[in-house]
Amino acid sequence: MKYLAAYLLLVQGGNASPSASDISSLLESVGVEVEESRLSTLLKDLEGKDINELIAEGNTKLASVPSGGAAVASGSGASAAAAGGDAEEAKEEAKEEEKEESDDDMGFGLFD
C-alpha cells in the first residue's frame, strides 16, 4: 500500500509515470525501507495503464460494496417498535441510544 501511495503522490505532483528510483527516493526520504520485489510488482501491474482509469474502475467496484450496516440496525429497531404499536417507547429508546453514544469517549476528548 505504501508503494501505491508513493506512486499516487508522485503522479499528483506532476510525474506522469514514476520510476522505481523515484518511488524509492520518496519512500527513503521519510525513512521507509523499500522492498524492490514489491515495488517492481506494482510497477509491472501499472505499466501501460492510466491511473485515472484505474481509479474510476475501482470506484465502480467500490460502489457495489454494501455499506449500510448502521442504517439496517437502526431500521430493524424502528420496525420492531412499530410492530409493538408504542411510538412513545420507541422515542424513549432512541433517547437512551443517543445518551449511550455520547458516553463512548469516557470523558476523554480527541484534543484533551
Automatic annotation (TrEMBL):
Compositionally biased tracts (Low complexity): 65-85
Q: Which residues form the signal peptide?
A: 1-16
Q: Which GO terms describe its biological process?
A: cytoplasmic translational elongation
Gene Ontology CC, one term:
cytosolic large ribosomal subunit
Q: What GO molecular function terms would the record report?
A: structural constituent of ribosome
InterPro entries attached to this UniProt entry: P1/P2_N_sf, Ribosomal_P1/P2, Ribosomal_P2
Q: Which Pfam families match?
A: Ribosomal_60s
Q: Which UniProt keywords apply?
A: Ribonucleoprotein, Ribosomal protein, Signal
Q: Record's superkingdom?
A: Eukaryota
Please give the residue ranges the record annotates as the region Disordered. Answer: 65-112
As for family, the record states: Belongs to the eukaryotic ribosomal protein P1/P2 family.
What is the recorded name of this protein? RPP2B
Please spell out the taxonomic lineage of the organism that makes this protein: Eukaryota, Fungi, Dikarya, Ascomycota, Saccharomycotina
